[in-house]
């Protein structure tokens, strides 16, 4: 189970308020390929959902079946994905950045 980063968690709370615990749980349950940074997939889910619970549910389903296409839809499929995530969610704290470099 991938752990949700602090910056993703903060965005979930902003976007989904009282539903945040359920959203975080759903993100943690996503089956993410070991070669993919889970934060990248989590960010893609949130970007595609555009703060809509209905769109979130669709994005979560899509992540489970075709996460590569989800990355494309979110604009996170190319080598510049880290910068886009930083732009959308703020810079990662040092421990998160080090962990991401190892993936």
Structure in words:
The chain is 70% helix and 0% strand. By secondary structure, the protein is mainly alpha-helical. The longest helix is centred in the middle third of the chain and has 22 residues, at 53-74. The relative contact order is 0.16.
Element layout with pairings:
Blueprint: H1 6-16, H2 20-29, H3 38-49, H4 53-74, H5 81-89, H6 94-101
Helix pairs in contact: 1-2, 3-4
Mean pLDDT: 89
Q: What is the number of helical segments per DSSP (H or I, 4+ residues)?
A: 6
Radius of gyration: 12 Å
Structural class: mainly alpha
The CA-CA distance between the termini, in Å, is: 15 Å
* Helix-strand topology string: HHHHHH
The rough form would be described as: globular
- Which segments are poorly predicted (pLDDT under 50) over 5 or more consecutive residues? none
- Helical fraction equals 55-70%
Number of E-state strands: 0
Please state roughly what percent of the residues sit in beta strands, choosing from under 5%, 5-15%, 15-25%, 25-35%, 35-45% or over 45%: under 5%
Report the sheet with the most strands, covering strand number, pairing sense and barrel closure: none
